[in-house]
Amino acid sequence: MKGLTAILKKELADHFASYRFAILFALIAMVSLITAYMVGIRIREAEGQLKPQFVFLMLFTEPAAMFSLVQFVAFFGPLVGLILGFDSINRERNEGTLSKLLAQPIYRDVVINAKFLAGVVLIGVMLLSIVLVITGLGLILVGIVPGIEEIGRIFVYLIISIVYIAFWLGVAILFSIVFRSTATSALASLAVWIFFSFFVTIGASILANTLASDAELNPQSAARRVELVKYVVLASPMELYSDATATVIDPLRKSTRSTLPVGPLEAISMTRFSGVVMPHLISLLAITVVCFALSYIVFMRQEIRSL
C-alpha cells in the first residue's frame, strides 16, 4: 500500500523515542532478568539432581519469589499491548494531526494498518530481546547449551506470546477509535483485561457449581463440572495463552489439562503437544484478527470531518 512503509517507520520511531516505551521495556526487562537470575542460581545449586534436557526450560517455567517468567507474561503481557495502543488514534485526533495526515495522498486503511503493524513489531522486538538476554544469562549461570528441542519450544512460545499481546493491542486500538478521550479508552481497555483475567474464571466456577451441585456425591457429575469449567474459561484469551504455553514450554506436560505423569521421552517429544497447542494458537489468531477487523471497520466508517 502507498505510504504504509513511511507511516510504519514514523510510528516505530515515535515508539522507540518515547519515554513510555523506555520505562515499559526497562520494567519488564528488570522483572524478567531478576526472575531468571533467581531461578538460574537455584538450578546451579541443585546441579547433578536435574536432567540436562529439562534444565534450560526451567528458566522460563520455574517460579522465583512469586511467579515464573511464563506466568508474568501471561498476566502482565496484556498491559504492554494496552499501553501501546490505548491512545494510538484518539491522541492524534485530539491534537489535530490525524486530519492533516489523512489530507495527504494516503489511504485511510494505511493509517490503521501501519499503527497495528508498528505495535506488533515493537512487541516482537521486546519479547525477542528479553528471551535472548535470558538465554545468555542462562548460559552463564547454568552452563548448559539448550538443545534443538528446547530452542524449538522457546521459538513456539515466542510466537504465541506475540500473538497473545497483539490481541490486547487490537483491543486498545479499537477503544482508541471508539472513544475520543484517551482516559476513557484506557479505562475501557483495563476493564476488558480485568474481566477476562478475573471474572471469567469466577463466573465459570459459579456456573459449574450451579449446574452440578451434587458433584461431591456423584463422580460423573464431578467430571462434568471439571469439563464445564474448562470450556467456559477457554473464553478468556489469558486461559488460552496459559494452556498453550504451559504445554509448549513445560517438558513434563503432554497436554494443556493433563494431570497424569508421563515419561521423559514422551514428555519432550515435539509431536506430543503439536496437536494440542495448535487449536489454542488458531483461536488466539482468530480473536486477534476479529478484533483488528472491528477496529478497521469502525475506523473506515468514521466521517473524515469527525476526525
Task: Write a compact overview of the structure shown.
The chain is mostly helical and 307 residues long.
Rounded to the nearest angstrom, the radius of gyration is: 22 Å
Average the pLDDT over all residues and give the rounded result: 79
Structural domains: how many = 1
- Work out the number of β strands: 0
Major sheet characteristics: none
The fraction of residues assigned to DSSP E strands is under 5%
The portion of residues assigned to helices is over 70%
Low-confidence stretches: 254-272
Indicate the overall shape: globular
SS-based class: mainly alpha
C-alpha end-to-end distance:
22 Å
- How many H/I helical runs? 14
In N-to-C order, the SSE pattern is: HHHHHHHHHHHHHH
Task: Walk me through this protein's architecture.
This protein is mainly α and 307 residues long. It has one domain. The protein has helices spanning 4-17, 19-45, 52-55, 58-61, 69-85, 90-95, 97-102, 108-142, 148-178, 182-211, 219-233, 237-249, 264-267, 270-301. Helix 1 crosses helix 8 (108-142), helix 9 crosses helix 10 (182-211) and helix 9 (148-178) packs parallel to helix 14 (270-301). It is globular. Residues 254-272 have low confidence and may be disordered.
